[in-house]
Amino acid sequence: MAYSSGKDGQLFIDDNGTAAARVKSWSLNASQDTIDTTFLGDTDRTFKEGVRSFSGNCEIAYYSDANGESDAKTLINKIFKPRTTTTEGGVAAAQGESTLKLGFNDYANTLKYITVKVLFTSMSITCSTGEIFTASGSFTVNGAPTEVSV
User: Fold this and answer.
1) Structural contact between residues 23 and 103, judged by C-beta atoms closer than 8 angstroms
2) Is the separation of the CB atoms in 135 and 125 below 8 Å?
3) What pLDDT sits at residue 30?
4) What is the pLDDT of residue 119?
5) What is the pLDDT of residue 1?
6) For each successive 10 residues of the chain (150 residues), what is the average pLDDT?
7) I need a surface site. Which of 18, 71, 139, 149 has the fewest CB within 10 A?
8) Percentage helix, strand, coil for the chain under 3-state DSSP, each rounded to 5
9) How far apart are alpha carbons 133 and 5 in whole angstroms?
10) What is the pLDDT of residue 70?
């Protein structure tokens, strides 16, 4: 038995069968609302489950292959959209929903993962002297996960 660490992390974008190259990090957060079910005359508060929500973020180093393709470019293009006309500054293509498979390889090198449909809420690109160019995105999960295998 062994611990998994960040080096074991995997990120797949839009059902691509190949893990994104140079993933620096990813996180997925879940929260559960509660509904107060306490009635007049009760001596203790009671609750039941309410709505769940998920959000997260990911960061990928910009690395391109021999064909100039990059997973960071794919991530950046999720939210950074060019104008569709040269005269109207407020018109660009819609973002659309994305699929992320967030996972890690366990001690037996078996991929454990959670697949979610997401809408990116923010994206940042960072280029600093002496640092690797990175793309970081935050997202909100649209509905429940589509697959859970952890």
Assistant:
1) no
2) yes
3) 96
4) 95
5) 55
6) 73 83 89 96 95 94 77 81 78 88 90 95 89 89 95
7) 18
8) 5, 45, 45
9) 23
10) 76
**Helix, coil or strand: residue 135:** strand
- Residue 121 Rama label (left phi>0; alpha psi -120 to 50; beta): alpha
Q: Tell me if 52 sits within 8 A of 38, measured CB to CB.
A: no
Number of neighbouring beta carbons within 10 Å of residue 94 = 6
Q: Hey, is 61 helix, strand or coil?
A: strand
pLDDT the model gives residue 27: 95
Q: What is the DSSP letter of 91?
A: -
- Quote the CA–CA distance of 74 and 69 in Å, as a whole number: 8
Q: What is the 3-state secondary structure (H, E, C) of 117-134?
A: EEEEEEEEEECCCCCCCE
